[in-house]
Design a protein that fits this description.
The chain has 444 residues and is of the alpha+beta class. The chain has helices at 48-63, 122-129, 164-177, 188-196, 290-293, 298-306, 317-324, 328-340, 365-368, 370-380, 414-419, 427-441, and strands at 3-10, 15-17, 20-23, 25-30, 33-34, 41-45, 78-81, 86-91, 97-103, 107-110, 114-118, 137-141, 156-163, 180-187, 205-211, 214-218, 226-229, 246-252, 260-266, 269-275, 344-347, 352-355, 384-387, 392-397, 400-405, 410-411. InterPro entries: Znf_SWIM. One of its GO terms (molecular function) is zinc ion binding.
Length: 444
C-alpha cells in the first residue's frame, strides 16, 4: 500500500476551558482563498453535551483501525463550514468506516466558508468526555478563539501518513451513499433498544429487519432488511444514545449484502456512520466511481462544475446542469470526478451532495484508481477487439484472452467470478467500454 504524508501545523493546541471550545485549524481552502490557519466560526452551540459527544465520536473513528487493530494512527478530523452548519468528518485507518457530525444550529458569526483540519489532542478528548448538562458551549473554529495554555504559544506540528485506500474511500462513500434508500426510521426509545441489542463481536454479521415500527436483529436476510457486517464497528453510536431523538437506517434498494449507513438525530445535529460490506473490506476497493471516471468528458466537465461550487449546504444537480449547460448524467459524472479529489461528499438526510475541499488533487486520480489506469493502457495498446457491434469484446492480456459483455459488465476473468460486479467493473470491462466509446465517436 502506498502512502502520502500530510503535515499539520497548528498555531496552538485545541483547548476546552471555562465553557469555551477553541479548535485549532491547519491549512485549508476558503471562499477568501487558501489559508494557513482559517477562521470559520465564532459563537454558541446551544447543546453542549451532545456536541461534545458527537465531536468525540468523530475523533474516535479517526483514531480507529477496526480491521486488525494496531496503534499508531493519529489522523485529525476535517471540518467544513458552509455558512449555515459545520460538518465534521473522519475516516478509519482501515478504510471501512466513515463518520460525520453535522452541527445544524449555529448562533454566532460565520467568518468564512471552507474546509480545514482541526486538532483533536489527548487533553481535549479528555475534556470533551467530561462535558455534561444543557448549558451552551462557546465554539471557535480558528486560532483567534484559542485559550493557549503554553507560555509561549508554541506551534503544534504533526506528520500523518495517509494510505491511498483512505483517500479513495472518501470518493467511494459519496457514490455508494447516493444509491442508498431510507430503509427504516425509529424513535429515540426504539433506537436505543435496537442498538443495544446488537452483538459486540467484531466478526458478527447481522441484518436489521423491519418489524412494525421497530427493527429486529436477524442472522439471515429479511424483507426490507439492511446488512451490518462487523457489528462492533457502530460502537461510536453508543455514547450518543442518551441524546438520540431518532435513528435512520440506509441501505441499497435491492436489500443486498453490502454497505449501510446509520444516522442518529441529535438535538440540533446529526451523526452519520457508514460501514463497508465487510470489516476487512475498505470502501477504497468498491469501484463505484470507475464507470463515471472512465468517460472521456469527466475530467473536463469536472473543471466546469468545480468552478460553480461555493461551499453550498447542498449541491443541486439540476441547478448545476443549468449553470454549466451539461446534461444531468454528465454533471453526476463530474461530481464523481471531483469526489476523487475530495471536493464533494453526500448527505443521505438531504439526499444531496455537498462541497468540501480535502488536501489532495486531481493529479492523484490515476494513482488512486489503478484499475482505471490499467484499463486505459489496455484500450490504448490495441488489446481490445470489439464484437457484435460493440456489445461484446475480447481483451488480450498476459493472462490470456478475456471475453467481455460490454453492456452487462460481465467478464471471464477471475476478478469478475470472485465479485460478479459487486465491487465495480474489472479492468477488462472498463477497457472494452472505453474502446467501444472511441469506436462510436471516431469519424466515418
Amino acid at each position: 500500500m502506498t502512502h502520502a504524508t500530510q503535515a499539520y501545523s497548528y498555531a496552538g493546541p485545541s483547548t476546552l476551558a471555562d465553557g469555551r471550545l477553541g479548535l485549532s485549524t491547519s491549512g485549508g481552502t476558503a471562499l477568501s482563498g487558501p489559508q494557513t490557519h482559517p477562521r470559520f466560526f465564532s459563537g454558541l452551540l446551544s447543546q453542549a453535551a451532545p456536541a461534545a459527544a458527537g465531536l468525540l465520536a468523530v475523533a474516535d473513528v479517526a483514531l480507529a483501525r477496526y480491521h486488525k487493530p494496531r496503534p499508531g494512527w493519529t489522523r485529525d478530523p476535517v471540518v467544513t463550514c458552509d455558512g449555515g452548519r459545520l460538518r465534521f468528518e473522519s475516516f478509519s485507518a482501515c478504510g471501512g468506516v466513515y463518520a460525520r457530525l453535522d452541527v445544524l444550529e449555529l448562533e454566532g458569526d460565520v467568518l468564512d466558508r471552507g474546509t480545514t483540519n482541526v486538532d483533536v489532542n489527548g487533553p481535549l478528548r479528555e475534556a470533551l468526555a467530561r462535558v455534561g448538562g444543557r448549558d451552551p458551549l462557546h465554539l471557535g473554529v480558528g486560532p483567534d478563539e484559542l485559550t493557549v495554555t503554553t507560555l509561549d504559544g508554541a506551534v503544534v506540528e504533526k506528520k500523518v501518513p495517509l494510505p491511498t485506500r483512505w483517500l479513495r474511500g472518501f470518493a467511494e462513500v459519496q457514490v455508494i451513499a447516493a444509491g442508498f434508500d431510507l430503509r427504516a426510521e425509529l424513535s429515540g426509545p426504539h433506537a436505543v433498544r435496537f442498538l443495544r441489542s446488537l452483538p459486540r463481536s467484531a466478526r458478527a454479521t447481522v441484518w436489521a429487519v423491519p418489524a412494525g415500527r421497530d427493527l429486529r436483529v436477524s442472522a439471515t436476510p429479511g424483507r426490507g432488511g439492511v446488512c451490518l457486517s462487523g457489528a462492533s464497528r457502530v460502537t461510536t453510536l453508543m455514547p450518543l444514545l442518551r441524546f438520540a431523538k431518532a435513528l435512520r437506517v440506509y441501505g441499497p434498494a435491492d436489500g443486498s449484502s453490502t454497505a449501510s449507513a446509520w444516522e442518529l438525530e441529535l438535538p440540533g445535529m446529526r451523526y452519520t456512520l457508514a460501514v463497508s460490506p465487510e470489516p476487512w473490506r475498505g470502501f477504497s476497493g468498491e469501484g463505484a466511481v470507475l464507470a463515471d471516471l472512465a468517460t472521456d468528458e469527466a475530467a473536463g466537465d469536472a473543471d466546469v462544475v468545480g468552478m460553480l461550487l461555493n461551499f453550498e449546504p447542498t449541491v443541486e444537480l439540476g441547478l448545476l446542469a443549468d449553470r454549466s449547460g451539461l446534461p444531468i448524467g454528465r454533471v453526476r459524472a463530474a461530481l464523481t470526478q471531483l469526489g476523487t479529489a475530495g471536493r464533494v461528499g453526500y448527505d443521505l438526510h438531504e439526499a444531496a451532495h455537498f462541497h468540501r475541499e480535502l488536501p489532495y488533487d486531481r493529479e492523484q486520480v490515476a494513482e488512486l484508481n489503478p484499475r482505471l489506469t490499467a484499463a486505459r493502457a489496455l484500450a490504448g495498446s490495441g488489446a481490445v477487439r470489439l464484437l457484435d457491434g460493440g456489445d461484446a469484446a475480447e481483451v488480450t492480456t498476459d493472462g490470456g484472452v478475456r471475453r467481455v459483455r460490454v453492456t452487462e459488465g460481465e467478464c471471464t476473468c477471475p476478478w469478475w467470478f470472485d465479485h460478479r460486479g459487486s465491487r465495480g467493473p474489472c479492468k477488462h470491462v472498463l477497457a472494452a467500454r472505453i474502446a467501444a466509446r472511441v469506436a462510436v465517436e471516431a469519424p466515418v
